[in-house]
């Protein structure tokens, strides 16, 4: 099969799951054309991300003149389709806070995507996130390009489904994907009932080989790690509050925050204000090997998120045989089992978070190790990148084999 991946910003340090999925598809025999709208503004510290960047075509780098020429060319060759696509862009733009003008830009991007797909013999397009990349894929299909599918992750799509015209994207897609059963339930809220059978679940995957020989848990006082972009939805500020509550009873407790983002300055100020400078380390973004090193150095992962889909870092921690403390939201309870593989607490409750950390700190290392192994068994059975990519490839192959009627 020849597939185009239509993406907004690619690669991104926090989106390694897309790279894993894409490469697993290629190992399965698919040819994948990478079409991203723009490059990441963040430094790419992982060599694999830099390799992906070199293989990606960046649509906006074609320039406004060429994108408009692509749209004009589609209008000359396919006037009826172009008119229908223009009306679709204007209708979707009316519902969006980004407005119609932005959606006319998406239409020009879609013309370039449709042309690239046509030139490469692409049979199907797949987008990640139900935001502007899926808008471009939908418009490219309306312009005469191949059929499309897309993966939603949350929470962004679930926060603003009407503004994103999520229902229209779902109904026009050959199929759509959620990364958890919770995510699928949210898509069913916006899709027409007769399209529910086209909403699939394909988990984000990990590469078991990267976690082939998990290190034993370290000795000494409890060490926790949290991994993710420093932003409001991840709730890292709550960790500082919880840690301050525990400092007297657990003086050796240490927290490492891996990542970066707009809240870094606020987090650094909160750490200083609470006098936790020796108990908290901020590393910045790390490559995959660096993330695995931090997991190895920790007794467990802690994730205090307010909103999520199903976080990759939970899967990676479980694959590394580390128990997890996380919030009881979205798809997380589908993976983390309280008392078996970790702890689940209500989101936004610093007191409950502190209690869970205190319980982990007083749990014998042998018990934590058993929890970690139970989590490893569970995640490897549910989130193998090769198996999940094969599911996606099967869904794509089915619609390609069915021909234009299915698209």
What labels describe this entry?
Rossmann fold; alpha/beta; elongated; 6-stranded parallel β-sheet; single chain; 2 domains; 407 residues; 7-stranded parallel β-sheet
Describe this structure in words.
With 407 residues, this protein is an alpha/beta fold. The chain has two domains: 2-205 and 385-406, 3-Layer(aba) Sandwich (Rossmann fold), CATH 3.40.50.2000; 209-382, Glycogen Phosphorylase B (Rossmann fold, 3-Layer(aba) Sandwich). 47% of the residues lie in helices and 15% in strands. The protein contains 16 helices and 13 strands. The strands form two sheets. It has a seven-stranded parallel beta sheet, sandwiched between helices. Strands 10-9-8-11-12-13 form a six-stranded parallel beta sheet, sandwiched between helices. Helix 13 (312-319) links the parallel strand 11 and strand 12 (324-327). Helix 3 (64-77) crosses helix 4 (79-95). The longest helix has 22 residues, at 99-120. The chain starts with a strand and ends in a 5-residue tail after the last helix.
């Amino acid at each position: 099969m020849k597939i185009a991946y239509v993406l907004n910003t690619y690669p991104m340090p926090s989106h390694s799951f897309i790279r894993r999925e894409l490469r697993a598809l290629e190992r399965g025999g698919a040819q994948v054309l990478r079409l991203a709208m723009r490059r990441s503004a963040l430094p790419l510290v992982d060599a694999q991300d830099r390799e992906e960047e070199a293989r990606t075509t960046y649509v906006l780098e074609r320039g406004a003149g060429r994108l408009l020429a692509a749209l004009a060319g589609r209008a000359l060759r396919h006037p009826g389709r172009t008119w229908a696509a223009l009306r679709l862009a204007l209708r979707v733009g009316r519902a969006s806070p980004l407005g119609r003008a932005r959606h006319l830009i998406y239409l020009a991007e879609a013309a370039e995507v449709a042309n690239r797909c046509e030139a490469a013999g692409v049979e199907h397009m797949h987008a990640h996130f139900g935001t502007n990349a899926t808008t471009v894929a939908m418009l490219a299909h309306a312009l005469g390009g191949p059929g499309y599918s897309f993966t939603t992750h949350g929470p962004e799509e679930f926060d603003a489904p009407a503004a994103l015209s999520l229902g229209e994207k779902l109904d026009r897609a050959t199929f759509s994907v959620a990364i958890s059963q919770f995510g699928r339930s949210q898509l069913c809220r916006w899709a027409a009932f007769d399209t529910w059978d086209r909403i699939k679940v394909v988990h984000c995957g990990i590469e078991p080989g990267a976690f082939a020989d998990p290190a034993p848990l370290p000795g000494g006082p409890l060490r926790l790690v949290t991994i993710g972009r420093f932003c409001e939805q991840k709730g890292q500020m709550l960790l500082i509050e919880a840690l301050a509550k525990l400092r007297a009873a657990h003086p050796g407790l240490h927290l490492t925050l891996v990542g970066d983002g707009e809240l870094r300055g606020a987090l650094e100020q909160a750490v200083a204000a609470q006098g936790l400078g020796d108990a908290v380390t901020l590393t910045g973004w790390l490559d995959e090997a660096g993330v695995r090193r931090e997991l190895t150095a920790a007794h467990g992962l802690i994730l205090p998120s307010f909103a999520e889909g199903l976080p990759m870092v939970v899967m990676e921690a479980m694959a590394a045989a580390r128990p997890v403390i996380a919030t009881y939201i979205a798809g997380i309870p589908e993976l983390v089992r309280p008392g078996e593989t970790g702890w689940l607490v209500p989101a936004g409750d610093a007191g409950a978070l502190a209690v869970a950390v205190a319980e982990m700190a007083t749990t014998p290392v042998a018990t934590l190790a058993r929890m970690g192994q139970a989590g490893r068994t569970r995640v490897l059975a549910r989130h193998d990148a090769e198996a999940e990519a094969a599911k996606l490839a099967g869904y794509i192959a089915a619609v390609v084999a069915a021909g234009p009627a299915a698209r």
